[in-house]
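User: Okay, second chain of the day. Same drill as before: sequence in, structure tokens out.
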Amino acid sequence: MKTIAIITTLIVLVCLKTFGQKQEISLSFTAMSKGNYLPLDSTRVENPARGCDTTLYFPDTVLVLDMVVGIHNNPRKFKQVFILEQNFPNPFQQQTTFNIFMPEWNTIAVSVSDLSGRNVAEGKYNLSEGWHAFQVDGGDAATYLVTVICGDASESIRLFAIPGGEKNRIALTYSGLVKGSKGSLKTGTGDSFVFLLGDTLHFTGFAKTSGVIRGSDFIEDSPVQNHLYTFNITEGIPCPAIPCVVYEGKTYHTIEIDLHCWLKENLDVGVMLNADSNQTNNSIIEKYCYNNNPVNCTVYGGLYQWDEAMQYSMTQGVQGICPPGWHLPTDAEWTALSLYLGGQNSAGGHLKEAGTFHWYPPNTGADNSSGFTALPAGMYFNGAFGHFKACVEIWSSTYSYGPYSWYRILYNDNTHFTRTNYFERWTSRSVRCMLN
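Assistant: Same drill. Structure tokens below.
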């Protein structure tokens, strides 16, 4: 159980009578996958409003916030100059990674030491704004300490090694700027985890699914009393610092694949039209829902003609109907994803949600090991809906020729991730978005 002291500043006079009384909020965490309970590997708790975070590691699943009710007399203001994220995986065998966020260009010193205090790896780096990835390899100790120093600010994390494998000298490697990363830090009060009543916390739970695939879930809440949170673990790990995106009133989760950030759900934005109405260039995003049922949009996402999805641009990589800072993937980006997951003949199994809750049987080869969680939204063409729960067709932003543009198809009866431009671009298909 992790206990964190929190100062809550109250401005109503009645609270002065209770000054000095200790109160606690106990937050407990558990996890499930497909109806079965799972042990959590770790739980990350972030307070975006205060620019701080903490992490629970198995078997610790309870976070106790010790609150002092009253006026905080001597707040010490400080400004965070970077964020050091906990490494993943942790514990690790032979290799692990961690990220550092810089709100502006600065120079940092990174060192890796064992518990005796002996530095086993170190380096100095001039880093631009954004999230930067580092990799640690090798080692024969059970525990290491990574320390980052920037000016007079410092942060540390512990790395726990799993016995086994080759015993090599520890190596620290800078892996580069995380693609599309951006963000900002805020000033907090105090020098630890900071929480004021009314703050919205982000909880990310990490665990392995029943298929022994890395998975996670994200919960957002503003706790005011003891609470038990249950993560619904699905395959995949969210993008660093961007676990979710709120767009037009709907929350989308993110997934990182090969250092690229994707939305984990098909896009569902715009005004629903009945299928007998045409999507037009009228400055209003318009969508079809399978069988004219809005519930199908909620679950499987909307169906869009290519021109509507592109917002009537012909430029590949355009934002189109995606959230700001995101874009419709190009044909080349879909190809890169396919190659990373094994190629066109097998990538589909790693992209499809496993099981037959949403997909028609047999849902061949579906293991969702990428975390992409593709759902079979079907399509709309020539006045008829079709292929619901049997396939999903997803647009690229790359024009082909004449009335055709490139798109990808996933099927329930094979593992293919098919690239095609067979049907015209006024066919209505699904949209996934990718971070710029």
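Residues 5-22, 68-79, 180-191 have pLDDT under 50 and may be disordered.

User: Thanks, on to the next one.
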